[in-house]
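retry 2 of 3: previous attempt timed out while embedding tryptophan. Reduced batch size to 1 and resubmitted. Inputs unchanged:
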Amino acid sequence: MSEKIILTGDRPTGRLHIGHFAGSLRRRVELQNASDYKQMFVFIADAQALTDNMENPEKVRQNVIEVALDYLACGLDPEKVTLFIQSQIPELCELTFYYLDLVTVSRLQRNPTVKTEIAMRGFEQSMPVGFFTYPVSQAADITAFRATTVPVGEDQKPMIEQTCEIVRRFNHIYGETLVEPAIMLPDNAACLRLPGTDGKAKMSKSLGNCIYLSDTADEVWQKIRSMYTDPTHLRVDDPGHLEGNTVFTYLDAFSKAEDFAAYWPEYENLDALKAHYTRGGLGDMKVKKFLNEIMQETLSPIRERRKAWQKDIPAVYDILRRGTQQARAVAAKTLDDVRHAMKINYFDDVELIAEQSKRFSEAD
Ligand code: TRP
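retry 2 succeeded.
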């Protein structure tokens, strides 16, 4: 069996959208079904969400179940994947506390993702320490489960790098204990960072430019219909531009060869469609309708599964509870190893008392 241990998670600050799906969720389901791993963990990072939502506990609480529903809706199977809630694993806090000794303030200040987020949240003058140090807690999330493979979006690259540094430093000082993870990025460039429907660089709830996995068919179509395309493509005959054209970026991320035969046989593939659009003579609305077919095909089974799980919310919490129990046992084992390596395992070390007795009797 493969020795791969896969782990990833999401902050529960909103329902998940197709950016999450293209960037990571779709990959997770493929990984789960490929069965080429020893263990796979997917978790809801509620404690991390609280680092910048400390005043909004209700928001985090509501979104824990939303994210869990999105996971199950996408087809994550609790028989194959351990689904858990971060805050219910206190071992992660203890690991974080020790890892904090291995990281400098200036190193954290250089973390590009943290830098961007500080600016975004206006934390320059009043940064919560918990927020500032969340990359260290993320290192605990990853190492507690000995993850080898972390499928995440590009924005998480600095977090994985920071984790690897902590692992190397820990192992250097205390002996080989922790496992260095590798990031697994989406292989399709369009999926790396899917823009919002307005063409802005990132999908974000506050910009209102997201297509949610839980949107109705009509909501999806309305959003696609009003999507940003090419502002210079005024008349059908005008040549169209692909650069920054959200509809085409989404087609890059979601369309498959079969979609052309099924919904638009006039074109052999995406290249042929792009060629016509660039030449001129192809209206945006036609392309949007095609994208809509593809998105509906992708999203309708997700929507249906979500509806089914919504009818049995206690079962969803049960899945999370059981997953959390399993995950906690794994994290506890790593914490034991960490305490041992750091020589703070006083009561489990059968040699310790004898050793110290000998030392002090020799001193006589
Ligand atoms: N920071 C991640 C995000 O914002 C969520 C996360 C927390 C995570 N801990 C993790 C992802 C560990 C991968 C591994 O999406």
